Amino acid sequence: AYANTAGRTDVEGCCWWGRGVIQTSGVCNFGKLNYYLGAGAKKDGRTSKYPELDFCKDPEVICASSEYKELKWIAGEFYWMESVQSYNEGGWDYTTELRKFVDGGMTGTGFIDGVSGIVNRGCHNPPCGTGALDGGMERAQNFRKVLDALFDGSPPQVGSSPNGLPPGSPADSGPSMGPGPSGKWYPDYNAQWALGKCVNEAPIPGGRPSYDTGVECCQKAYASQASGNCLSSLPQIPSAPSGSPPGVGSLGSQVAGLPSQTPPTTRPPVSLTSEAGIIINSEPFIGMQNALDSAKDDIDNKLFLYQTPAFQWIPSSIYRYDDFKDSLYVMATEGVAGKKFYIGDSDVENGHVYGLVNIAAFLAQSMKETIQYDACDENSWDLVGGKYPLSNACGQLGQSYQDYHCSPEEAHMECPVDPNMSITGVTHAKWYGAPGPMFCGPKTNDQPFSGFWDHLYECNKGWANPPESCSDYEGQKAGRYDQSMAYANTAG
């Protein structure tokens, strides 16, 4: 057998490796997902977002589901809400530091360095616990890239008046000339989403996205508005005069450039008085959603990139904006265990900017942890004696994921370890000779131990007799599973 860094020479019960955009791992974290969002809630008679999904029996659903692609994001957002947004240690409070960063003009790397420490090492001021911060500069650069994409170099001032000036400033009494038509249309950000509309009065408030036509503004800024108020509020085409050509009827009830049928909404209507309705009709949610939608192309094509084995950076095939947006809707409106993904403050002008910076910090870590590798399942990377133990699935760098238990108060939530569970990951590293996907399974009489991945083995031998080919995963160029001997992990 070949042991991993914790001394394991088998993969029995080792089904709890990292999954999702920030690598959720361990029986406690998967158990909490199941307890609040999955079949665990249904079993107890509680409502849940995914009542038919059992994250304890099939944690791989986070990466493998084609129906719920947002899960790979939700797993990471759950971690973010549990461990980052709630962080308050040694005089460093996450929310306080975030607001200080925004109010101070979004300069420096102190805030994102603290966040990176929490994610990478468990504290805001590494080295601590597991060592020095890894990839701090790269994480800070990612953060700046996301901020640039979301704000285009000029974030709106938080706490400013609608015209973008500080409250009480001399010019805050309004423009020198009365409101007049502008060449651009922009959303009015009505506090009630159902009543929101697009207007073209000058001046355009600072930080608002603008569009060439009212129709374009409604379709992008109020894309999921079930009431249709935005579109119906636009100037209407006069009724066609009598004698118009056949097929041109009265257009008095139609908006210029708009199809006669209203586009379908992406989600069922939500009661305005429900908790979710209040949230999605709030300024932070509307402002956040509009800013993200405006940056969608940059997010997909400039931020969510991974490096190919040929050292080219191309858009990720796993992490896409639409799935991220769906996950954010769930975690901002429903959340988990009374916690929600922070989207900003409602009591200040442009309070959504705080939420966007929270998102930028989250995406900066995600780009470093998984997106750059186009991976959902944890890659096997802990090299022991020149080989990759298959028991890395149990934990790397001396960790044991199945021993990451919940606190006594939450012990009832964690997943039980089933020694007979068999799961194989769906993603893995893609470099020449890279280890195949992690897997877990019971020990058997024929295979009582686990071996290693030999990344130096040349499996493409068309000239051999008989010929050999690489068949452990699609696109494999070299390497193989070797179960001929037990091989321990790092602590072995």
Which short descriptors sum up this protein?
single chain; 492 residues; alpha+beta; three-stranded antiparallel sheet; two-stranded parallel ribbon; 14 helices; elongated
Describe the structure in your own words.
It is a single chain. With 492 residues, the protein is an alpha+beta fold. The chain contains 14 helices and 13 strands. The strands form 6 sheets. A 3-stranded antiparallel sheet has the order 8-11-12, with no helix packed on it. The chain has a two-stranded parallel sheet with strand order 1-13. A hairpin with a 2-residue loop joins strand 2 and strand 3 (92-93). The longest helix has 18 residues, at 352-369. The radius of gyration is 26 Å and the shape is elongated. The termini are close together. The model is unreliable at 161-180 and 237-265 (pLDDT under 50).
Strand % is: 5-15%
Q: Count of DSSP helices?
A: 14
Helix content: 25-40%
Distance between the termini: 11 Å
Number of strands: 13
**Compute the gyration radius: what is it?**
26 Å
In short:
The protein is of the alpha+beta class. It is about 30% helix and about 10% strand.
Secondary structure blueprint with pairings:
Layout: E1 2-4, H1 27-37, H2 39-43, H3 61-64, H4 71-84, E2 88-89, E3 92-93, H5 94-103, H6 110-121, H7 136-151, E4 180-187, E5 198-202, H8 214-221, H9 229-232, H10 275-280, H11 283-294, H12 296-303, E6 305-307, E7 313-315, H13 321-333, H14 352-369, E8 388-389, E9 423-424, E10 439-440, E11 452-454, E12 480-482, E13 487-489
Parallel strand pairs: 1-13
Antiparallel strand pairs: 2-3, 4-5, 6-7, 8-11, 9-10, 11-12
Helix pairs in contact: 4-13, 6-7, 7-14, 11-14
